[in-house]
Design goal:
The structure is a single chain. The protein has 263 residues and is of the alpha/beta class. The protein has one domain (8-254): NAD(P)-binding Rossmann-like Domain (Rossmann fold). Helix content is 46%, strand content 13%. The chain has a seven-stranded parallel sheet with strand order 3-2-1-4-5-6-7, sandwiched between helices. Strand 2 (45-50), helix 4 and strand 3 form a beta-alpha-beta unit. The longest helix is centred in the middle third of the chain and has 23 residues, at 116-138. The chain is globular, with a radius of gyration of 18 Å. The protein binds nicotinamide-adenine-dinucleotide.
């Protein structure tokens, strides 16, 4: 495959997503909303999906800024919902970008007390649904497609009280490698982002319960080499890189975006 076309491209062209359609799961708030915003700013026609109908207001806010954004209610554990979201893009001409952002992180608690039901729920949302979504997306993508999965640094190193979450995000990293290998020959790149601690509604809701299990998020932020919590837009910028021409030869990797916490 020639890379000549890319070497001639300007920086602006490399990040320009005009004419592309993108689906972002869990896009009502937090990291998903930030990703949807950056992809729309880069010119993509973006479908924000979520269980939470506040996604409608998030999409409306983007439209009021002159961007292309729609909302569709989608529970990622429901394969028919995933197929409908992917089909939304296909019906408009092409599905080019799929961002598997939606995920849950209820506090696991001590490993000796983790129930099978808890594990099932964690893996159903964070692993099975992401896998099904990648399949539904890839089935409607062609050469040039890009899938980005939200993993976590918890999938790279362990932490007290988050064993089930860590295991689920480790699976996302393994899945990303496998799908990158398998879908690469179809011209579809699959990559993941492993965020560190990012200031979102989801994290804020877990701060106190996590403290009780021995993971102090405030202390972890204070110890970060950059001495700050990450913001959703830090992840959105990394995602823009992974779906754009800037990363044309990046496939199957997990990009750690954590301010150096795992360095
Ligand atoms: N915030 C962090 O510090 C951090 C760190 C590492 C990884 N992550 C990952 O990034 C992703 C986004 O995290 P966040 O902090 O923005 O989360 P959040 O809880 O603030 O937002 C998640 C969104 O996903 C939606 N969602 C949850 N379950 C869903 C389902 N079954 N179907 C559809 N939508 C669903 C929620 O309604 C919500 O709008 C998650 O996969 C998370 O594991 C976050």
């Amino acid at each position: 495959m020639s890379t000549a076309a890319w070497s001639d491209a300007s920086i602006t062209d490399l990040v320009n997503l005009a004419g592309k359609r993108a689906v972002v799961t869990g896009a009502a708030v937090g990291i998903g909303a930030a990703i949807a915003t950056r992809l729309a700013q880069a010119g993509a026609d973006v479908l924000l999906t979520d269980l939470d109908d506040r996604g409608e207001a998030t999409a409306a806010g983007l439209r009021s800024g002159g961007l292309s954004a729609s909302f569709q209610r989608c529970d990622i554990t429901n394969t028919a919902h995933l197929a409908a979201a992917a089909q939304w893009a296909a019906d408009r001409g092409s599905l080019d970008i799929w961002v598997n952002n939606a995920g849950i992180y209820p506090t696991t608690g001590p490993v000796l007390k983790v129930t099978d039901e808890f594990l099932d729920r964690m893996f159903d949302v964070n692993v099975r649904a992401q896998f099904s979504a990648a399949r539904e997306a890839a089935n409607r993508m062609s050469t040039g497609g890009a899938i980005v999965n939200l993993a976590s640094i918890a999938g790279i190193r362990g932490g007290a009280g988050i064993s089930a979450y860590s295991a689920s995000k480790g699976a996302v990293i393994a899945m990303t490698r496998a799908l990158g290998n398998e879908l690469g020959p179809m011209g579809i790149r699959v990559n993941a982002i492993a965020p560190g601690i990012i200031d979102t509604p989801g994290v804020r809701a877990q701060m106190e319960p996590l403290k009780a299990t021995g993971l102090d998020i405030d202390a972890a932020i204070a110890a970060n080499p950059l001495r700050t919590a990450g913001q959703p837009d830090h992840i959105a910028r990394a995602c823009l890189f992974l779906v754009s021409g800037l990363s044309a030869f990046v496939n199957g990797v997990t990009l750690v975006v954590d301010g150096g916490a795992t360095a």
